[in-house]
Design goal:
Layout (H helix, E strand, L loop, with lengths): L26 H22 L35 E3 L5 E7 L5 E7 L8 E3 L19 E4 L2 E4 L8 H4 L10 E10 L3 H10 L5 E5 L5 H10 L4 E7 L20 H12 L7 E6 L1 H4 L2 H13 L3 E4 L8 H8 L3 E3 L2 E2 L6 H18 L1 E7 L2 H14 L4 E3 L13
Length: 397
């Protein structure tokens, strides 16, 4: 039995772990601290982030760090116990324009500095510190009737950037391994989190139990995580993926409502991976609005490659959605020996192409084989990375 982790996500902001704070300092020293923090954060992001995932976060002018005008839909943080808070948008005025194709164009301009007294500086980071990784960046969440779901921050930070597992930046052979089905079995989930190395990406089933608890444990162990979304297979309803299933016979609004209900079940994930979905993935009319919504929220879409008729790659290119394909299903034949052979095959693909993605389920045989293989992969010059680092980001059309 795992130890339940009680860490309410709505806790008082002044006590939230993972926020960098400077309090009761003279203004000049606050400015200096912000400048140093900005240079360190930018250098770390440049070193760790793959070129395909880089963003250009807004950096507020040093002389305007104490106030934030976050635009019409976002409010600046209110003082808590007389202490004002500032984040990466401090002193910025943000204007948003929605274009005909649904893209959001944001214009940033310096704001005016006002107010006196102490200020706490909150520096959002790309790739969270392990000590705070279990807690979401509040600026990347949108409150809805279904709960809190991902959104791109006003400074352009995407959840797929914020929660991505950092990697070396070296252009050697890279492999991402995704283990799905977490949350469905308590013992299986606990075993996968504790025995798999932190480099392995974990996918949580939308219909799973105690997801927030398991997410926190997985993030503290260093894992990047995905949300596993059920999609309609060809033999539905004889083969029913379960609650939150998106279907081709539902309207766009109904599918998006189910998508958002599933999204609200967990936080801190970099993207969506399908569970089943042969029929849904082959329907452009059904899939396109879902892919567009996922992309608009700063998430990637991982296709598990179980359907040869999937249109996810084509639609991802059309809507500029971060996207990745799995190269191999690792445990179709569920035995330790068979999984190890598939992992060796995945390595050959990665050496030929530079990268590869393998996907498996959290069965004991799979977990044992993946753990064993990963322990030796580093000695062969292979880097195990989070799946976000291998996502393709098509150019806008």
């Amino acid at each position: 039995m795992g130890t339940d982790i009680h860490a309410p996500l709505g806790q008082d902001r002044k006590a939230r772990p993972g926020r960098t704070g400077l309090s009761r300092f003279p203004a000049g020293r606050v400015v200096s601290a912000l400048a140093v923090a900005g240079l360190v954060g930018l250098s770390g992001w440049t070193a760790l982030a793959p070129s395909g995932l880089r963003t250009e976060p807004f950096v507020a002018p040093a002389e305007t760090i104490e106030t934030a005008d976050a635009g019409p839909d976002r409010k600046a943080a209110e003082p808590v116990d007389g202490v004002r808070r500032a984040n990466g948008l401090s002193g910025a005025r943000v204007e948003e324009t929605v274009t005909d194709d649904g893209s959001v164009v944001r214009k940033y301009a310096p704001g005016t500095r006002d107010g006196t007294g102490p200020v706490i500086l909150e520096a959002n980071r790309v790739g969270q510190d392990a000590r705070s990784a279990a807690f979401p960046n509040e600026d990347l969440l949108e409150d809805t009737s279904d709960g809190r779901i991902p959104v791109i921050g006003l400074d352009g930070t995407r959840p797929m950037d914020q929660y991505a597992r950092p990697w070396s930046g070296a252009r050697g052979t890279r492999i991402a391994i995704v283990v799905g089905g977490l949350g469905l079995s308590q013992t299986g989930t606990q075993r996968a989190i504790r025995e798999l190395p932190g480099e392995v990406t974990l996918a949580f089933a939308a219909s799973g139990n105690s997801l927030q608890r398991w997410m926190q444990e997985a993030r503290r162990a260093g894992h990047e995580i995905l949300l596993q979304l059920p999609l309609e297979p060809f033999d539905y309803p004889q083969n029913d993926p379960g609650p939150y299933t998106l279907r081709t016979d539902m309207s766009e609004a109904q599918n998006l409502a189910e998508l958002h209900r599933a999204m609200a079940r967990i936080t801190n994930y970099t993207g969506i991976v399908n569970f089943m979905g042969g029929r849904f993935l082959s329907s452009a009319d059904a899939l396109e609005p879902v892919m567009r919504d996922v992309a608009s929220r700063g998430l990637l879409f991982l296709d598990d490659a179980s359907s040869a008729q999937s249109l996810s790659g084509t639609i991802a290119g059309a809507v500029s959605a971060p996207h990745a394909f799995a190269d191999l299903q690792l445990d179709a034949d569920l035995s330790r020996t068979a999984v190890l052979k598939k992992l060796d095959e995945l390595e050959r693909i990665a050496r030929r192409n530079g990268t590869a993605i393998g996907i498996a389920s959290a069965f004991d045989e799979s977990v044992d084989a993946i753990r064993e293989w990963c322990e030796e992969a580093g000695t062969r010059g292979i880097e195990i990375v989070g799946v976000a680092s291998l996502a393709d980001i098509p150019a806008k059309r």
